[in-house]
Design brief:
It contains twelve helices and eleven strands. With about 350 residues, the protein is of the alpha/beta class. It has two domains: about 5-110 and about 330-340, Enolase-like, N-terminal domain (Enolase-like, domain 1); about 125-310, Enolase-like C-terminal domain (TIM Barrel, Alpha-Beta Barrel). It has a seven-stranded parallel sheet. Strands 3-2-1-4 form a four-stranded antiparallel sheet, with helices on both faces. Helix 4 runs parallel beside helix 5 (about 155-170). The longest helix is centred in the N-terminal third of the chain and has 16 residues, at about 85-100. The structure holds the ligand O=C(O)CCC(=O)C1=CC=C[C@@H](O)[C@@H]1C(=O)O and magnesium ion. The ligand O=C(O)CCC(=O)C1=CC=C[C@@H](O)[C@@H]1C(=O)O binds near residues 20, 244 and 320. This is o-succinylbenzoate synthase.
Length: about 350
């Protein structure tokens, strides 16, 4: 079977720039790809690189798309170089749609963010780094979020621990009837001692009466190269740890699993690589996985949530796809409209 291959780059500013230890991320750039078969059936995919997580760059992806030409077949789709993880995910996802779409001329279902057919998933909302977290948590709580992610390792630790105390006080004084789950994400920016300081602080929360807060996990406390340090932290503290940057691509995921990591794995499907290989790994190894966005558009989001819904582990952890940092132009358009507007 041969497919017409088309691709269109996009760039969309975030509503709220994302402050991380990697820097401030203001614009999401990516590529929407489209496969069309000889009966006119269509499948879209999204290349959403995050180079500082180890994926290819946008320029790499564009060069790859340009050299593919106007027609490709499965022999190309299933032999995309493993270093091009965002391209692998996007083009194979598009193939999954176009090759399995039931009707003759079918486009992807027009789904908005809230009505993706994976309503059983719960979502995590991203809090702004720093002191704004306590207020933002109240706003997101009203929107229905009960799981929150807060980036740390961005400001000096004393300032962040102070903001953390404000967040804890705000939760304590709210007399909430439900418990908030909080994920701390350091993006690898802490030293071993700073990670111990954060974990000791989190473990002391249990001593506060009636506190409706549970630290779900500390994400990527140390740099990617320090797996031994994170294995030591996992042995030493009860607060669960999650790896993100360390397991961003499928090859890293397999390697870190082989090296003994049995904590939480944050999986960003859009930059993990081949969706079929990702499914195969998660279904054979039964890992504790949290699925996470790379702030893609609804094209990549739908493909990623499809996998999250299939693989969501019994822990039913919220997926990191809260639409808190979405794009400037607010309302999402249909996928077909997104394509024609590019
Ligand atoms: O996982 C989530 O809750 C949202 C996505 C998210 O936090 C991230 C997406 C992409 C890059 C990073 O800045 C960040 C992360 O580190 O997980
Ligand atoms: Mg992370």
């Amino acid at each position: 079977m041969r497919y017409q291959f088309e691709f269109r780059p996009y760039r969309r500013p975030f509503k709220h720039p994302l402050t991380t230890p990697h820097g401030t991320w203001e614009v999401r750039e990516g590529i929407i790809v489209r496969l069309t078969d000889d009966r006119g059936k269509v499948g879209y995919g999204e290349i959403a690189p995050v180079p500082w997580f180890g994926s290819e760059t946008l320029a790499d992806a564009l060069s790859f798309c340009e050299q593919l030409g106007h027609e490709i077949g499965p022999e190309i789709i299933f032999s995309i170089p493993p270093r091009l993880t965002a391209c692998q995910f996007a083009i194979e996802s598009a193939w999954e749609i176009v090759s399995t779409q039931p009707s003759a001329i079918a486009v992807q279902p027009e789904l908005g963010f809230e009505d993706v057919p994976y309503h059983h998933l719960t979502y995590s909302g991203l809090l702004p780094a720093g002191a704004g977290a306590a207020i933002a948590r109240q706003i997101l709580w009203k929107q229905g979020y009960r799981t929150f992610k807060w980036k740390i390792g961005v400001a000096p630790i004393e300032a962040e621990l102070k903001s953390f105390q404000q967040l804890v006080r705000s939760l304590r004084d709210s007399f909430l009837q439900e418990t908030a789950l909080l994920r701390l994400d350091a993006n690898g920016a802490l030293t071993y001692d700073q990670a111990c300081r954060w974990l000791e602080t989190c473990e002391r929360l249990g001593e506060i009466e009636h506190l409706p807060l549970k630290i779900e996990f500390l994400e990527q406390p140390l740099a990617v190269g320090d797996l031994d340090g994170m294995l030591q932290l996992a042995d030493r503290f009860a607060i669960p740890l999650a790896l993100d940057e360390s397991v961003a691509g499928l090859s890293q995921l397999r390697q870190v699993y082989r090296e003994g990591w049995r904590g939480i794995f944050v999986i960003k499907p859009c930059i993990a690589g081949s969706p079929s290989e990702l499914r195969q790994f998660c279904q054979t190894q039964a890992i504790d996985a949290v699925f996470s966005s790379v702030f893609e558009t609804q094209v990549g989001r739908q493909a990623a949530l499809k996998i999250a819904a299939e693989l969501q582990n019994p822990g039913d952890r919220a997926v990191g796809f809260g639409i808190t940092h979405w794009f400037e132009d607010g309302e999402e358009v249909s996928i077909d409209r997104l394509w024609t507007d590019l």
